[in-house]
Write a structure and sequence with these properties.
single chain, about 550 residues, alpha/beta, Rossmann fold, Arc Repressor Mutant, subunit A, five-stranded parallel sheet, three-stranded antiparallel sheet, 28 helices, globular
Protein backbone atom coordinates (compact mmCIF):
# COMPACT_ATOMS: atom_id res chain seq x y z
CA UNK A 1 0.00 0.00 0.00
CA UNK A 2 1.36 3.39 -0.92
CA UNK A 3 2.30 5.74 1.92
CA UNK A 4 1.18 8.72 -0.12
CA UNK A 5 -1.70 10.56 1.44
CA UNK A 6 -3.99 13.41 0.55
CA UNK A 7 -6.85 15.27 2.14
CA UNK A 8 -9.27 12.42 1.55
CA UNK A 9 -6.96 9.69 2.88
CA UNK A 10 -5.79 10.62 6.39
CA UNK A 11 -2.50 9.28 7.69
CA UNK A 12 -2.41 6.64 10.39
CA UNK A 13 -1.93 7.88 13.92
CA UNK A 14 0.37 4.97 14.80
CA UNK A 15 2.26 3.85 11.71
CA UNK A 16 3.79 0.97 13.68
CA UNK A 17 0.44 -0.81 13.48
CA UNK A 18 0.55 -2.78 10.25
CA UNK A 19 -2.81 -4.03 8.99
CA UNK A 20 -2.43 -6.45 6.10
CA UNK A 21 -5.46 -6.53 3.82
CA UNK A 22 -4.84 -9.93 2.29
CA UNK A 23 -2.11 -11.67 4.34
CA UNK A 24 -2.82 -11.59 8.09
CA UNK A 25 0.05 -14.05 8.65
CA UNK A 26 2.43 -11.11 8.02
CA UNK A 27 1.04 -9.24 11.02
CA UNK A 28 2.43 -9.39 14.55
CA UNK A 29 0.66 -11.95 16.77
CA UNK A 30 -0.10 -9.21 19.29
CA UNK A 31 -1.93 -7.23 16.60
CA UNK A 32 -3.89 -10.31 15.54
CA UNK A 33 -4.89 -10.95 19.15
CA UNK A 34 -5.99 -7.33 19.53
CA UNK A 35 -8.14 -7.48 16.40
CA UNK A 36 -9.88 -10.74 17.29
CA UNK A 37 -13.62 -10.22 17.67
CA UNK A 38 -16.52 -12.68 17.83
CA UNK A 39 -14.29 -15.72 17.24
CA UNK A 40 -12.53 -16.19 20.58
CA UNK A 41 -14.80 -19.17 21.52
CA UNK A 42 -14.18 -20.79 18.12
CA UNK A 43 -10.44 -20.26 18.39
CA UNK A 44 -10.32 -21.64 21.93
CA UNK A 45 -12.42 -24.65 20.94
CA UNK A 46 -10.08 -25.40 18.04
CA UNK A 47 -7.04 -25.08 20.30
CA UNK A 48 -8.64 -27.39 22.87
CA UNK A 49 -9.36 -29.98 20.17
CA UNK A 50 -5.74 -29.99 19.04
CA UNK A 51 -4.44 -30.27 22.61
CA UNK A 52 -6.91 -33.06 23.37
CA UNK A 53 -5.68 -34.91 20.29
CA UNK A 54 -2.09 -34.58 21.54
CA UNK A 55 -3.07 -35.62 25.04
CA UNK A 56 -5.26 -38.64 24.28
CA UNK A 57 -4.06 -39.92 20.93
CA UNK A 58 -7.51 -39.43 19.41
CA UNK A 59 -7.73 -37.06 16.46
CA UNK A 60 -9.95 -34.02 16.04
CA UNK A 61 -9.43 -32.66 12.53
CA UNK A 62 -10.94 -29.20 11.91
CA UNK A 63 -12.01 -27.54 8.67
CA UNK A 64 -12.84 -23.81 8.74
CA UNK A 65 -15.28 -22.93 5.96
CA UNK A 66 -15.97 -19.38 4.83
CA UNK A 67 -15.61 -17.07 1.81
CA UNK A 68 -12.42 -15.19 1.10
CA UNK A 69 -11.87 -12.28 3.43
CA UNK A 70 -13.98 -13.76 6.24
CA UNK A 71 -10.97 -14.28 8.55
CA UNK A 72 -9.76 -17.86 8.02
CA UNK A 73 -6.07 -16.91 7.77
CA UNK A 74 -6.47 -14.76 10.88
CA UNK A 75 -7.71 -17.80 12.80
CA UNK A 76 -4.99 -20.11 11.48
CA UNK A 77 -2.31 -17.51 12.32
CA UNK A 78 -3.56 -17.11 15.88
CA UNK A 79 -3.92 -20.86 16.34
CA UNK A 80 -0.30 -21.30 15.29
CA UNK A 81 0.81 -18.56 17.67
CA UNK A 82 -1.06 -20.07 20.63
CA UNK A 83 0.15 -23.60 19.88
CA UNK A 84 3.72 -22.40 19.50
CA UNK A 85 3.57 -20.75 22.92
CA UNK A 86 1.79 -23.61 24.74
CA UNK A 87 4.16 -25.91 26.65
CA UNK A 88 2.01 -28.97 26.10
CA UNK A 89 1.99 -28.46 22.34
CA UNK A 90 5.73 -27.76 22.27
CA UNK A 91 6.50 -30.97 24.15
CA UNK A 92 4.11 -33.28 22.30
CA UNK A 93 3.95 -31.98 18.71
CA UNK A 94 5.74 -30.55 15.73
CA UNK A 95 3.77 -27.84 13.94
CA UNK A 96 3.85 -27.50 10.17
CA UNK A 97 2.27 -24.16 9.23
CA UNK A 98 2.07 -24.52 5.49
CA UNK A 99 2.12 -21.68 2.99
CA UNK A 100 -1.25 -20.14 2.16
CA UNK A 101 -0.95 -21.46 -1.39
CA UNK A 102 0.99 -24.68 -1.89
CA UNK A 103 1.26 -24.75 -5.67
CA UNK A 104 2.69 -27.71 -7.56
CA UNK A 105 1.74 -30.41 -5.03
CA UNK A 106 0.47 -33.11 -7.39
CA UNK A 107 1.06 -36.19 -5.21
CA UNK A 108 1.20 -37.25 -1.59
CA UNK A 109 4.98 -37.60 -1.96
CA UNK A 110 5.25 -33.92 -2.90
CA UNK A 111 3.02 -33.00 0.03
CA UNK A 112 5.36 -34.88 2.38
CA UNK A 113 8.30 -32.96 0.89
CA UNK A 114 6.51 -29.64 1.54
CA UNK A 115 5.79 -30.69 5.12
CA UNK A 116 9.45 -31.62 5.62
CA UNK A 117 10.55 -28.30 4.13
CA UNK A 118 8.21 -26.44 6.49
CA UNK A 119 9.50 -28.35 9.51
CA UNK A 120 13.09 -27.62 8.47
CA UNK A 121 12.36 -23.88 8.56
CA UNK A 122 10.64 -24.09 11.96
CA UNK A 123 12.94 -26.61 13.66
CA UNK A 124 16.46 -26.18 12.25
CA UNK A 125 17.86 -28.34 15.07
CA UNK A 126 16.24 -31.38 13.45
CA UNK A 127 18.51 -30.98 10.39
CA UNK A 128 15.72 -32.02 8.05
CA UNK A 129 17.52 -30.65 5.01
CA UNK A 130 20.46 -33.00 5.49
CA UNK A 131 18.12 -35.97 5.84
CA UNK A 132 16.17 -35.14 2.67
CA UNK A 133 19.10 -34.35 0.35
CA UNK A 134 19.57 -38.04 -0.72
CA UNK A 135 15.93 -38.17 -1.91
CA UNK A 136 16.78 -36.30 -5.09
CA UNK A 137 19.21 -39.02 -6.19
CA UNK A 138 16.70 -41.88 -5.93
CA UNK A 139 14.06 -43.26 -8.32
CA UNK A 140 10.57 -41.94 -7.56
CA UNK A 141 9.22 -45.08 -5.83
CA UNK A 142 12.22 -45.31 -3.50
CA UNK A 143 12.14 -41.58 -2.82
CA UNK A 144 8.46 -41.81 -1.82
CA UNK A 145 9.15 -44.55 0.74
CA UNK A 146 12.22 -42.79 2.13
CA UNK A 147 10.38 -39.46 2.48
CA UNK A 148 7.66 -41.08 4.58
CA UNK A 149 10.32 -42.82 6.69
CA UNK A 150 12.15 -39.53 7.28
CA UNK A 151 8.90 -37.86 8.39
CA UNK A 152 8.17 -40.70 10.82
CA UNK A 153 11.75 -40.61 12.08
CA UNK A 154 11.61 -36.88 12.74
CA UNK A 155 8.30 -37.14 14.57
CA UNK A 156 9.35 -40.01 16.81
CA UNK A 157 6.78 -40.12 19.61
CA UNK A 158 5.42 -36.67 18.79
CA UNK A 159 2.42 -35.90 16.61
CA UNK A 160 2.37 -33.66 13.58
CA UNK A 161 -0.06 -30.71 13.58
CA UNK A 162 -0.58 -29.48 10.02
CA UNK A 163 -2.09 -26.01 9.55
CA UNK A 164 -3.12 -25.77 5.91
CA UNK A 165 -5.22 -23.31 3.92
CA UNK A 166 -7.20 -23.71 0.70
CA UNK A 167 -7.68 -27.43 1.15
CA UNK A 168 -9.99 -27.49 -1.87
CA UNK A 169 -7.16 -26.35 -4.17
CA UNK A 170 -4.78 -28.91 -2.68
CA UNK A 171 -7.28 -31.74 -3.19
CA UNK A 172 -7.70 -30.71 -6.83
CA UNK A 173 -3.94 -30.92 -7.29
CA UNK A 174 -3.57 -34.23 -5.43
CA UNK A 175 -6.32 -35.95 -7.34
CA UNK A 176 -8.06 -39.08 -6.11
CA UNK A 177 -4.84 -41.14 -5.92
CA UNK A 178 -3.02 -38.54 -3.81
CA UNK A 179 -6.00 -38.10 -1.49
CA UNK A 180 -6.20 -41.86 -0.89
CA UNK A 181 -2.47 -42.06 -0.15
CA UNK A 182 -2.73 -39.21 2.37
CA UNK A 183 -5.79 -40.73 4.06
CA UNK A 184 -4.06 -44.13 4.28
CA UNK A 185 -0.96 -42.58 5.89
CA UNK A 186 -3.09 -40.83 8.54
CA UNK A 187 -5.03 -44.00 9.26
CA UNK A 188 -1.97 -46.26 9.43
CA UNK A 189 0.15 -44.07 11.70
CA UNK A 190 -2.38 -41.95 13.65
CA UNK A 191 0.19 -39.24 14.23
CA UNK A 192 -1.24 -36.33 12.23
CA UNK A 193 -3.76 -33.65 13.27
CA UNK A 194 -5.11 -31.37 10.53
CA UNK A 195 -6.53 -27.87 10.86
CA UNK A 196 -7.48 -26.64 7.39
CA UNK A 197 -9.50 -23.95 5.63
CA UNK A 198 -11.59 -23.76 2.48
CA UNK A 199 -13.73 -21.00 0.93
CA UNK A 200 -16.64 -23.44 0.51
CA UNK A 201 -17.53 -27.08 0.95
CA UNK A 202 -16.26 -29.23 -1.93
CA UNK A 203 -16.66 -32.77 -3.22
CA UNK A 204 -13.48 -34.06 -1.57
CA UNK A 205 -15.06 -33.76 1.89
CA UNK A 206 -18.81 -33.57 1.19
CA UNK A 207 -19.44 -36.56 -1.09
CA UNK A 208 -20.05 -39.87 0.67
CA UNK A 209 -17.77 -41.69 -1.76
CA UNK A 210 -14.80 -39.39 -1.00
CA UNK A 211 -12.06 -40.82 1.26
CA UNK A 212 -12.20 -37.76 3.54
CA UNK A 213 -16.00 -37.82 3.95
CA UNK A 214 -16.88 -37.34 7.64
CA UNK A 215 -13.19 -36.84 8.46
CA UNK A 216 -13.33 -33.18 9.56
CA UNK A 217 -15.23 -31.28 12.20
CA UNK A 218 -16.74 -28.51 10.07
CA UNK A 219 -16.65 -24.99 11.49
CA UNK A 220 -18.53 -22.46 9.35
CA UNK A 221 -17.27 -18.92 9.92
CA UNK A 222 -20.05 -16.39 10.42
CA UNK A 223 -19.96 -12.82 9.17
CA UNK A 224 -19.37 -10.12 11.75
CA UNK A 225 -22.53 -8.50 13.04
CA UNK A 226 -22.77 -4.77 13.57
CA UNK A 227 -21.60 -4.79 17.18
CA UNK A 228 -18.64 -6.97 16.21
CA UNK A 229 -17.69 -4.40 13.57
CA UNK A 230 -17.94 -1.51 16.04
CA UNK A 231 -15.79 -3.50 18.46
CA UNK A 232 -13.21 -4.27 15.78
CA UNK A 233 -12.89 -0.67 14.64
CA UNK A 234 -12.73 0.55 18.24
CA UNK A 235 -9.89 -1.90 18.93
CA UNK A 236 -8.01 -0.68 15.86
CA UNK A 237 -8.46 2.94 16.96
CA UNK A 238 -7.19 2.16 20.47
CA UNK A 239 -4.25 0.15 19.09
CA UNK A 240 -3.32 3.09 16.89
CA UNK A 241 -3.50 5.46 19.82
CA UNK A 242 -6.29 7.47 18.20
CA UNK A 243 -8.37 8.36 21.24
CA UNK A 244 -10.44 10.88 19.28
CA UNK A 245 -11.57 8.20 16.85
CA UNK A 246 -12.28 5.72 19.65
CA UNK A 247 -14.49 8.34 21.32
CA UNK A 248 -16.23 9.17 18.02
CA UNK A 249 -17.00 5.49 17.35
CA UNK A 250 -18.79 5.37 20.69
CA UNK A 251 -21.20 8.15 19.65
CA UNK A 252 -24.48 7.56 17.86
CA UNK A 253 -23.18 9.53 14.89
CA UNK A 254 -20.02 7.43 14.67
CA UNK A 255 -22.00 4.19 14.91
CA UNK A 256 -24.31 5.42 12.17
CA UNK A 257 -21.37 6.09 9.85
CA UNK A 258 -20.06 2.58 10.48
CA UNK A 259 -23.51 1.10 9.91
CA UNK A 260 -23.64 2.69 6.47
CA UNK A 261 -20.54 0.77 5.45
CA UNK A 262 -21.60 -2.37 7.34
CA UNK A 263 -24.71 -2.81 5.23
CA UNK A 264 -22.55 -2.81 2.12
CA UNK A 265 -19.66 -4.89 3.47
CA UNK A 266 -22.03 -7.59 4.79
CA UNK A 267 -19.81 -8.48 7.74
CA UNK A 268 -16.65 -9.32 5.77
CA UNK A 269 -13.67 -8.49 8.06
CA UNK A 270 -11.31 -7.83 5.14
CA UNK A 271 -13.49 -4.91 4.06
CA UNK A 272 -13.18 -3.31 7.48
CA UNK A 273 -9.42 -3.83 7.59
CA UNK A 274 -9.14 -1.91 4.33
CA UNK A 275 -11.62 0.65 5.63
CA UNK A 276 -9.54 1.05 8.80
CA UNK A 277 -6.60 2.30 6.77
CA UNK A 278 -8.12 5.75 6.64
CA UNK A 279 -10.31 5.66 9.74
CA UNK A 280 -10.52 8.92 11.59
CA UNK A 281 -13.37 10.96 12.98
CA UNK A 282 -13.01 13.26 9.98
CA UNK A 283 -12.87 10.44 7.42
CA UNK A 284 -15.91 8.76 8.95
CA UNK A 285 -17.78 12.03 8.75
CA UNK A 286 -16.71 12.47 5.13
CA UNK A 287 -17.44 8.97 4.02
CA UNK A 288 -17.63 9.47 0.27
CA UNK A 289 -13.92 9.95 -0.55
CA UNK A 290 -12.97 7.27 1.97
CA UNK A 291 -15.45 4.79 0.57
CA UNK A 292 -14.51 5.50 -3.03
CA UNK A 293 -10.91 4.87 -2.03
CA UNK A 294 -12.03 1.54 -0.55
CA UNK A 295 -13.88 0.58 -3.72
CA UNK A 296 -10.75 1.34 -5.71
CA UNK A 297 -8.71 -0.89 -3.37
CA UNK A 298 -11.25 -3.71 -3.52
CA UNK A 299 -11.82 -3.81 -7.26
CA UNK A 300 -8.82 -6.11 -7.97
CA UNK A 301 -10.00 -8.40 -5.15
CA UNK A 302 -13.47 -8.81 -6.64
CA UNK A 303 -12.06 -9.15 -10.15
CA UNK A 304 -9.93 -12.03 -8.87
CA UNK A 305 -13.00 -13.61 -7.29
CA UNK A 306 -14.83 -13.40 -10.61
CA UNK A 307 -11.91 -15.12 -12.35
CA UNK A 308 -12.16 -18.00 -9.88
CA UNK A 309 -15.61 -18.90 -11.21
CA UNK A 310 -16.39 -21.16 -14.16
CA UNK A 311 -17.95 -19.49 -17.19
CA UNK A 312 -21.65 -20.07 -16.48
CA UNK A 313 -21.37 -18.99 -12.85
CA UNK A 314 -19.45 -15.89 -13.90
CA UNK A 315 -22.24 -15.06 -16.35
CA UNK A 316 -24.88 -15.40 -13.61
CA UNK A 317 -22.94 -13.20 -11.18
CA UNK A 318 -22.41 -10.59 -13.87
CA UNK A 319 -26.16 -10.56 -14.56
CA UNK A 320 -26.93 -10.02 -10.86
CA UNK A 321 -24.31 -7.26 -10.72
CA UNK A 322 -26.12 -5.42 -13.51
CA UNK A 323 -29.65 -6.29 -12.36
CA UNK A 324 -29.04 -4.96 -8.82
CA UNK A 325 -32.14 -6.55 -7.20
CA UNK A 326 -33.15 -10.12 -6.42
CA UNK A 327 -34.22 -12.15 -9.47
CA UNK A 328 -36.05 -15.49 -9.86
CA UNK A 329 -34.34 -18.49 -11.44
CA UNK A 330 -36.49 -18.31 -14.58
CA UNK A 331 -35.49 -14.70 -15.22
CA UNK A 332 -31.79 -15.37 -14.61
CA UNK A 333 -31.81 -18.44 -16.86
CA UNK A 334 -33.56 -16.57 -19.67
CA UNK A 335 -31.18 -13.61 -19.47
CA UNK A 336 -28.11 -15.87 -19.43
CA UNK A 337 -29.39 -18.15 -22.23
CA UNK A 338 -29.19 -21.31 -20.13
CA UNK A 339 -31.83 -23.82 -19.04
CA UNK A 340 -33.59 -23.37 -15.72
CA UNK A 341 -32.22 -26.71 -14.54
CA UNK A 342 -28.64 -25.66 -15.32
CA UNK A 343 -29.25 -22.25 -13.77
CA UNK A 344 -30.61 -23.78 -10.55
CA UNK A 345 -27.59 -26.06 -10.31
CA UNK A 346 -25.13 -23.20 -10.86
CA UNK A 347 -26.97 -20.96 -8.39
CA UNK A 348 -26.79 -23.70 -5.75
CA UNK A 349 -23.02 -23.86 -6.20
CA UNK A 350 -22.76 -20.07 -6.06
CA UNK A 351 -24.81 -20.10 -2.87
CA UNK A 352 -22.50 -22.72 -1.33
CA UNK A 353 -19.56 -20.48 -2.25
CA UNK A 354 -21.43 -17.52 -0.71
CA UNK A 355 -21.47 -15.45 -3.87
CA UNK A 356 -25.29 -15.33 -3.82
CA UNK A 357 -28.10 -15.82 -1.33
CA UNK A 358 -31.69 -16.87 -1.87
CA UNK A 359 -34.96 -15.34 -0.72
CA UNK A 360 -38.00 -17.61 -0.71
CA UNK A 361 -41.23 -16.12 -2.07
CA UNK A 362 -44.01 -18.68 -2.18
CA UNK A 363 -42.77 -21.49 -4.40
CA UNK A 364 -40.15 -19.33 -6.05
CA UNK A 365 -36.58 -18.61 -5.00
CA UNK A 366 -35.11 -15.18 -5.70
CA UNK A 367 -31.34 -14.76 -5.84
CA UNK A 368 -29.12 -11.74 -5.23
CA UNK A 369 -25.46 -11.06 -4.52
CA UNK A 370 -24.31 -11.69 -0.96
CA UNK A 371 -21.98 -8.71 -1.05
CA UNK A 372 -23.32 -5.38 -2.38
CA UNK A 373 -19.71 -4.17 -2.48
CA UNK A 374 -19.02 -6.60 -5.29
CA UNK A 375 -21.67 -4.91 -7.40
CA UNK A 376 -20.47 -1.44 -6.47
CA UNK A 377 -16.87 -2.31 -7.39
CA UNK A 378 -18.04 -3.58 -10.76
CA UNK A 379 -20.16 -0.43 -11.19
CA UNK A 380 -17.09 1.71 -10.56
CA UNK A 381 -15.54 0.21 -13.69
CA UNK A 382 -18.71 0.76 -15.72
CA UNK A 383 -19.81 4.20 -14.54
CA UNK A 384 -16.75 6.18 -15.63
CA UNK A 385 -17.62 9.21 -13.52
CA UNK A 386 -21.31 8.50 -13.08
CA UNK A 387 -22.73 9.22 -9.62
CA UNK A 388 -22.04 5.97 -7.78
CA UNK A 389 -20.37 7.99 -5.01
CA UNK A 390 -23.61 9.88 -4.54
CA UNK A 391 -25.27 6.73 -3.28
CA UNK A 392 -22.56 6.46 -0.63
CA UNK A 393 -23.04 10.10 0.28
CA UNK A 394 -26.76 9.36 0.44
CA UNK A 395 -26.04 6.64 3.00
CA UNK A 396 -23.72 8.94 4.91
CA UNK A 397 -26.30 11.70 5.20
CA UNK A 398 -29.39 9.60 5.80
CA UNK A 399 -28.28 6.86 8.12
CA UNK A 400 -28.25 8.38 11.61
CA UNK A 401 -31.42 8.21 13.67
CA UNK A 402 -31.13 11.94 14.39
CA UNK A 403 -31.00 12.65 10.66
CA UNK A 404 -33.99 10.39 10.06
CA UNK A 405 -35.93 12.31 12.68
CA UNK A 406 -34.88 15.66 11.21
CA UNK A 407 -35.67 14.53 7.68
CA UNK A 408 -39.16 13.40 8.58
CA UNK A 409 -39.89 16.69 10.35
CA UNK A 410 -38.15 19.10 8.03
CA UNK A 411 -37.48 17.99 4.43
CA UNK A 412 -35.46 21.15 3.70
CA UNK A 413 -32.37 19.85 5.48
CA UNK A 414 -31.93 16.90 3.15
CA UNK A 415 -31.99 18.90 -0.07
CA UNK A 416 -28.21 18.90 -0.45
CA UNK A 417 -27.42 16.30 -3.06
CA UNK A 418 -26.44 16.26 -6.71
CA UNK A 419 -29.46 16.13 -9.00
CA UNK A 420 -27.82 13.34 -11.00
CA UNK A 421 -28.88 10.82 -8.36
CA UNK A 422 -32.52 11.70 -8.87
CA UNK A 423 -32.16 11.42 -12.62
CA UNK A 424 -30.40 8.08 -12.34
CA UNK A 425 -33.02 6.72 -9.94
CA UNK A 426 -35.80 7.70 -12.30
CA UNK A 427 -33.97 6.05 -15.18
CA UNK A 428 -33.64 2.83 -13.19
CA UNK A 429 -37.34 3.01 -12.36
CA UNK A 430 -38.16 3.37 -16.04
CA UNK A 431 -36.16 0.26 -16.85
CA UNK A 432 -38.31 -1.84 -14.51
CA UNK A 433 -41.47 -1.33 -16.52
CA UNK A 434 -41.79 -1.35 -20.31
CA UNK A 435 -45.49 -0.33 -20.40
CA UNK A 436 -45.67 2.61 -22.87
CA UNK A 437 -48.13 4.50 -20.64
CA UNK A 438 -45.88 4.06 -17.63
CA UNK A 439 -42.83 5.08 -19.66
CA UNK A 440 -44.60 8.25 -20.77
CA UNK A 441 -45.47 9.14 -17.19
CA UNK A 442 -41.87 8.55 -16.14
CA UNK A 443 -40.66 10.88 -18.86
CA UNK A 444 -43.00 13.64 -17.68
CA UNK A 445 -42.16 12.86 -14.07
CA UNK A 446 -38.46 13.23 -14.70
CA UNK A 447 -38.92 16.63 -16.35
CA UNK A 448 -41.29 17.85 -13.65
CA UNK A 449 -38.90 16.74 -10.91
CA UNK A 450 -35.87 18.35 -12.50
CA UNK A 451 -37.77 21.61 -13.04
CA UNK A 452 -39.16 21.60 -9.50
CA UNK A 453 -42.86 21.46 -10.49
CA UNK A 454 -43.80 19.70 -7.27
CA UNK A 455 -47.60 19.68 -7.64
CA UNK A 456 -47.22 18.09 -11.06
CA UNK A 457 -44.91 15.50 -9.48
CA UNK A 458 -47.65 14.59 -6.98
CA UNK A 459 -50.29 14.28 -9.71
CA UNK A 460 -48.05 12.15 -11.91
CA UNK A 461 -47.24 9.80 -9.05
CA UNK A 462 -50.97 9.41 -8.41
CA UNK A 463 -51.47 8.54 -12.08
CA UNK A 464 -48.64 6.04 -11.85
CA UNK A 465 -50.19 4.41 -8.79
CA UNK A 466 -53.62 4.25 -10.46
CA UNK A 467 -52.29 2.11 -13.31
CA UNK A 468 -52.52 -1.66 -13.02
CA UNK A 469 -48.74 -1.86 -12.95
CA UNK A 470 -46.39 -2.88 -10.21
CA UNK A 471 -45.07 0.58 -9.38
CA UNK A 472 -44.10 0.06 -5.75
CA UNK A 473 -40.42 -0.34 -6.56
CA UNK A 474 -40.61 2.82 -8.64
CA UNK A 475 -42.18 4.62 -5.69
CA UNK A 476 -39.30 3.46 -3.52
CA UNK A 477 -36.58 4.57 -5.89
CA UNK A 478 -38.34 7.84 -6.53
CA UNK A 479 -38.80 8.43 -2.83
CA UNK A 480 -35.17 7.67 -2.05
CA UNK A 481 -34.09 10.14 -4.71
CA UNK A 482 -36.84 12.73 -4.43
CA UNK A 483 -35.38 14.73 -1.59
CA UNK A 484 -32.02 15.05 -3.30
CA UNK A 485 -33.44 17.57 -5.76
CA UNK A 486 -32.18 21.11 -5.06
CA UNK A 487 -35.50 22.41 -6.45
CA UNK A 488 -37.59 20.85 -3.67
CA UNK A 489 -36.93 23.65 -1.22
CA UNK A 490 -40.43 24.77 -0.22
CA UNK A 491 -41.65 23.22 3.00
CA UNK A 492 -45.36 22.94 2.20
CA UNK A 493 -45.30 20.96 -1.05
CA UNK A 494 -42.39 18.62 -0.24
CA UNK A 495 -44.19 17.64 2.95
CA UNK A 496 -47.16 16.52 0.86
CA UNK A 497 -44.83 14.50 -1.31
CA UNK A 498 -43.19 13.12 1.81
CA UNK A 499 -46.54 12.06 3.25
CA UNK A 500 -47.54 10.32 0.02
CA UNK A 501 -44.23 8.53 -0.07
CA UNK A 502 -44.45 7.60 3.63
CA UNK A 503 -47.85 5.97 3.04
CA UNK A 504 -46.40 3.98 0.15
CA UNK A 505 -43.49 2.85 2.33
CA UNK A 506 -45.74 1.70 5.17
CA UNK A 507 -48.09 -0.11 2.82
CA UNK A 508 -45.21 -1.84 1.13
CA UNK A 509 -43.64 -2.92 4.40
CA UNK A 510 -46.77 -4.96 5.16
CA UNK A 511 -46.24 -6.95 1.97
CA UNK A 512 -45.16 -10.14 3.72
CA UNK A 513 -48.25 -10.25 5.95
CA UNK A 514 -50.81 -9.12 3.39
CA UNK A 515 -49.47 -10.79 0.27
CA UNK A 516 -46.68 -13.38 0.57
CA UNK A 517 -46.15 -13.27 -3.19
CA UNK A 518 -45.65 -9.51 -3.35
CA UNK A 519 -42.19 -9.11 -4.87
CA UNK A 520 -41.83 -5.35 -5.33
CA UNK A 521 -39.15 -4.93 -2.70
CA UNK A 522 -37.05 -7.62 -4.36
CA UNK A 523 -36.67 -5.33 -7.36
CA UNK A 524 -34.52 -3.10 -5.20
CA UNK A 525 -30.90 -3.77 -4.33
CA UNK A 526 -30.38 -5.25 -0.87
CA UNK A 527 -28.90 -2.10 0.65
CA UNK A 528 -31.85 -0.06 -0.66
CA UNK A 529 -34.27 -2.55 0.92
CA UNK A 530 -32.50 -2.12 4.24
CA UNK A 531 -32.86 1.64 4.00
CA UNK A 532 -36.54 1.30 3.15
CA UNK A 533 -37.12 -0.99 6.12
CA UNK A 534 -35.34 1.49 8.40
CA UNK A 535 -37.45 4.35 7.07
CA UNK A 536 -40.63 2.35 7.56
CA UNK A 537 -39.83 1.73 11.21
CA UNK A 538 -38.92 5.40 11.70
CA UNK A 539 -42.12 6.60 10.05
CA UNK A 540 -44.31 4.25 12.08
CA UNK A 541 -42.63 5.30 15.33
CA UNK A 542 -43.14 8.96 14.52
CA UNK A 543 -46.79 8.37 13.66
CA UNK A 544 -47.21 6.78 17.07
CA UNK A 545 -45.59 9.83 18.62
CA UNK A 546 -42.53 7.98 19.89
CA UNK A 547 -38.97 9.19 19.54
CA UNK A 548 -36.66 7.47 17.07
Amino acid sequence: MSDTTNASTPTLVNKALYLSHFTPSMMAPETLETMLVQREPLLQRSLDHVLESLRTGSSHHTLFVGPRGIGKTHLISLLHYRLATTEEAKSKALIAWMREEEWGVTSFFELVLRILRTLDASYPELQVDALTTPLYELPLKEAEKLAESILLQILGTKRLVVLLENLDDLFDQLGEHGQKAWRAFIQNHNNMVLVCTTPAMFAGVSLQKSVFYGFFDIEALKELDFEDVVNLLRKIAVERGDQELAAFIATSEGRARIRAVHHLAEGNPRIYIIFAQFLSAQALDELVPAFMHTLDELTPYYQARMKELPGQQRKIVEYLVNYRGAAPVKQIAKSCFITQQTCSSQLKQLKDKRYVRSIEQGRESYYELCEPLMRLCMEVKKQRGEPISLFVDFLRIWYTTDELTTMLRDPEVICRMDLRYLERALLLAQETNADPKVMAIYKDLSQASVQGRTQEVINLMKELTALNSDTDAAWMRFGLALFQSPHMLHTDVPIEILNSWADAVINLMHWQMDNPNHKSLLLLASEERKLIERFAVAIQQMQKGSAI
